[in-house]
Design a protein that fits this description.
Length: about 260
């Protein structure tokens, strides 16, 4: 299927590794013009160079951005509009907050998680909407977690703010539909990224298990019997943000190999 993404302008937040990198690469493969953002300049430049070589797409550029800073997000949006004159797709993405329960976090840690995993999404959407309205529409994908359907043990901060992202998307789908802006939430299950490795290492240390033992146990709970790949996750995101999707908005999806049992 031709997704008609060639020449479309895409911003991907937190794109230097993991799901963000996978999504950016998939858009590049489809011929889109992609702006990758991350706080770490050296990593970002290397990823951009790698994606250019892997996809033979020269229209891939880096822009350093700390998504917890409102001014950085606005500068990223301004840069994109100045360079390519429009924004067709925004991919909101962020690293996960630390694991833990109610007794383990200070007010400052709650505030940091809020700014990283929810407020950054609000700010970036607010920044791109005026341009999307001018051009007659666009697509927004909010990357969250499978906890938007079923909470995850030991991940209180993530459970709280990822649910907020789902509520944000549902509300904005109602508000922005008249402007031709489609917005959806996509939650990864157990996708093989550095973040998942960190969580598995925490489980291994807590349970006095090896990483292989943790992985085997986790995979047994997944109907497809394995962890997913960033590309598998990216395929779904790219489809939802392409011209192939003209009628799906305000929805929350999980890409999890069947792991989540909630309806």
């Amino acid at each position: 299927m031709d997704l008609h993404l060639k020449g479309k302008v895409v911003i991907v937040l937190a794109a230097s590794k993991g799901l963000g990198r996978g999504i950016a690469r998939q858009f590049a493969e489809e011929g889109a013009k992609v702006v990758l953002s991350s706080r770490r300049q050296n990593e970002l430049i290397q990823v951009v160079d790698d994606i250019k070589k892997e996809t033979n797409n020269a229209h891939i550029v880096p822009h350093v951005c700390d998504i917890t800073k409102a001014e950085d997000i606005q500068e990223l949006v301004n840069f994109t509009i100045k360079k390519w004159g429009r924004i067709d797709v925004l991919i909101n993405n962020s690293g996960g907050p630390p694991p833990g329960g109610i007794d383990q976090f200070t007010d400052e840690e709650w505030q940091r998680a809020y700014e990283l995993n929810l407020l950054s999404y609000v700010r970036s959407i607010r920044a791109v909407v005026p341009q999307m309205r001018i051009q007659g529409g666009g697509h927004i994908a909010n990357v969250a977690s499978s906890s938007i359907k079923q909470t995850l043990d030991g991940l209180l901060l993530s459970n709280t703010f990822r649910a907020g992202v789902a509520g944000l998307s549902k509300s904005l789908a109602q508000e922005l539909g008249k402007d031709g802006i489609l917005i959806n939430t996509i939650g990864p299950g157990r996708i093989a990224t550095d973040r998942l490795l960190e969580l598995d290492e925490t489980k291994a240390a807590k349970g006095n298990l090896s990483l292989d033992e943790v992985k085997k146990k986790e995979e047994q709970a997944i109907p497809l019997g394995r962890y997913g790949t960033p590309q598998e996750f990216a395929n779904h995101v790219v489809f939802l943000c392409s011209s192939a999707n003209t009628y799906v908005t305000g929805q929350a999806f999980v890409i999890d190999g069947g792991l989540v049992k909630a309806l």
